[in-house]
Amino acid sequence: MDKYIRRLIADIREARTKIVPPDMAVWEFADVENEAEVEDLAYVQETIYGKPEPLSIITDIETGYLPVDDVLTSDEKSLLARELEALLNHYNFYPDFPENYPDEKKYKHLRAVWNSERVHVSFGRAQIEFCDYDIKTCPFIGYCNTCEEVEREIREGPKADDIDFSIEDLLPL
Question: What is the rounded distance in angstroms from the CA atom of residue 157 to the CA atom of residue 86?
Fold first, then answer.
């Protein structure tokens, strides 16, 4: 397996060297230094003009090339997860994992979404969510408390210190 993993990592790194030109004419006139403009245009590209394709097609790494979780060592899963995450970032996809989530656990989530259809955005960030914020199905139990916070807010409403503005800020001068 070691030789196969080295070859796969070489293929993943090669895929990160590909230059992906913007696929929307609107980007020709965009100020890519303006974060708000990039965010707006990325949203437009993703939700209106984008054509969903499997991540495996976008990245040119077929799902079948990624070994199933149970044949890999912890170190191999960690290494592959870091490489796949870097590859996704190259294509402006950002997997949303809890801050301290172990790399070896990330691999199974990344492999599971590899055939999911996404819209490749030329600039900005396209988040890849793994959690639906339902505590009963949370994949990150013990690593984050977002599901618990969402459940509490649904049950009780937001806490006063969750609101970072005052009503006076909303009134006309």
Answer: 37
> For each of the chain's 173 residues, which pLDDT tens digit applies?
689 999 999 999 999 998 776 665 666 666 767 777 767 666 666 665 668 899 999 999 999 999 999 999 999 999 999 999 999 999 989 999 999 999 999 999 999 999 999 887 776 788 899 988 888 888 998 888 888 888 888 888 766 666 666 667 777 76
Query: Do 129 and 97 touch, CB atoms closer than 8 A?
Result: no
CA-CA distances (angstroms) from residue 112 to 24, 122, 149, 155?
29, 24, 26, 31
CB burial of 142-173 (b: ≥16 within 10 Å; e: otherwise) equals eebeebeebbeeeeeeeeeeeeeeeeeeeeee
| The model's pTM | 0.76
Is 33:116 a contact under the CB 8 Å cutoff?
no
Where b means 16+ CB within 10 Å and e means fewer, 1-20 reads eeeebeebbeebeebeeeee
The two tokens of residue 142 are: 């013990």
Residue 131 CA from chain centroid, whole number: 11
